[in-house]
Amino acid sequence: MREKPIINWFWAGILLALINLIVFLVEHRPIGASTAFPYLGNLLFPVINNEYLPEIEKSGRWELWFLAGGFLGAVITSLITRTFRFTFTPVYWEKRLKLGRKSRILFAFFGGFLLIFGARMAGGCTSGHMFSGGMQLAVSSLWFGIFAFAGGLLAAHLIYRRRYTE
Amino acid sequence: MIKVFILGAIFGAIMQLGFLDRLSKVIGAFLLKDLTIPKALMIAMGVGAVFLYSAEYFGLIQFHIKPFYPVGVALGGLIFGIGMVIVGYCPGSMPEAVGEGRMDALLGIISGVIGGIIFTIYYPVYHSSFLHGNTIGAPTLTDLFGLEGLAKLLTGIAIGMTFVLLAFLIDRLERKYILKEEEAESLDGHVPG
């Protein structure tokens, strides 16, 4: 049996559209997430002869605050709805995919790197490209969505398909 | 910045309540076993297009379209999609996953920050290389047809509504081919339409 969300996909989608409209109205920009990562990296380890930081500084700072808020929001709702679970290896990872803690560490580390590197190559992620760009019907973002989905399908079927058990 | 923080908290609450920040939903989507995220994304895109094209028509907002460089966006998208399946989270869902206690996402954030530093170093080379390629402006679908004013609004709404219909079509296909019948009845029984 799959986990049933507190709010279903339909209402989650409507609320996400609404919050992006509000961000457009109040902040005069769309929602985004992936520039927060190189921005935070540059705060911690300044890169010399940096051509990238000036380009992402403004949106990086915005997205870092936005994601910090996202963290707090999730803490609050997960405590209220009693869905907070302090875990390292997700149950799905162990039960459905029959994988262990070591592989979770390895995968989380390798995947996180590819995730942000790919997002910065393309200029956005699920939030900035697929979601914010998609609802503006941006060609670049829909193009990104096609290739991200293709990459994900390919990787999922090569890596997890044979391990998956109902 | 407190305003941005509060907006982020609302976003995080929606993501967490919709379980859109879970590894099981990300990997499930790409294994074509659990289409919660693709359906929520289609609804958000479709309803969002109706909202944004209306707001833009009445001069309430301005669009922010990302530049279109087909080669770099495609390569980045492929690497991003592969990375998402391996880590099990999106950049915008990792903080929420950590917020609900999933510490593997914290590792994803740390390696994402390292990825960001390495990209910063590599950026000058990448930006002028064939991997990035030429930029062809920053068009929307309505720009491709050269639409303005009311025609742009109506086309935006029509495409948006198509996305919404597609979400319900995906839902129907999921119930028919992926979920067992008894599961389908107990799941999301109160979805409108």
Task: Tell me what the structure shows.
The complex is a heterodimer of chains A (166) and B (193). Chain A is an all-alpha fold. Chain A is 69% helix and 0% strand. Chain A is built from seven helices and no strands. The longest helix of chain A is centred in the middle third of the chain and has 28 residues, at 53-80. The relative contact order of chain A is 0.10. Chain B folds into two domains: 19-64 and 142-193; 66-138, no CATH class. Helix content of chain B is 69%, strand content 0%. Chain B contains nine helices and no strands. In chain B, helix 3 (36-57) packs antiparallel against helix 8. The longest helix of chain B has 30 residues, at 149-178. Classes of the chains: A mainly alpha (166), B mainly alpha (193). The interface between A and B is large, with 135 and 132 residues.
The number of E-state strands of chain A comes to: 0
How would you sum up the major sheet of chain A?
none
What percentage of residues of chain A falls in helices of 4 or more residues?
55-70%
Low-confidence stretches of chain A: none
| Poorly predicted spans of chain B | 189-193
The H-and-E topology of chain B, N to C, reads as HHHHHHHHH
DSSP, total strands of chain B:
0
Order of helices and strands of chain A: HHHHHHH
Head-to-tail CA distance between termini of chain A? 9 Å
List keywords for this structure.
heterodimer, A: 166 residues, mainly alpha, 7 helices, 0% strand, B: 193 residues, 2 domains, 9 helices, disordered C terminus
List the helices and strands and how they pair.
The complex is a heterodimer of chains A (166) and B (193).
Chain A: H1 9-27, H2 36-44, H3 53-80, H4 91-95, H5 101-122, H6 126-135, H7 139-159
Helix pairs in contact in A: 2-3, 6-7
Chain B: H1 2-17, H2 23-30, H3 36-57, H4 70-87, H5 94-99, H6 104-127, H7 141-144, H8 149-178, H9 181-186
Helix pairs in contact in B: 2-4, 3-8
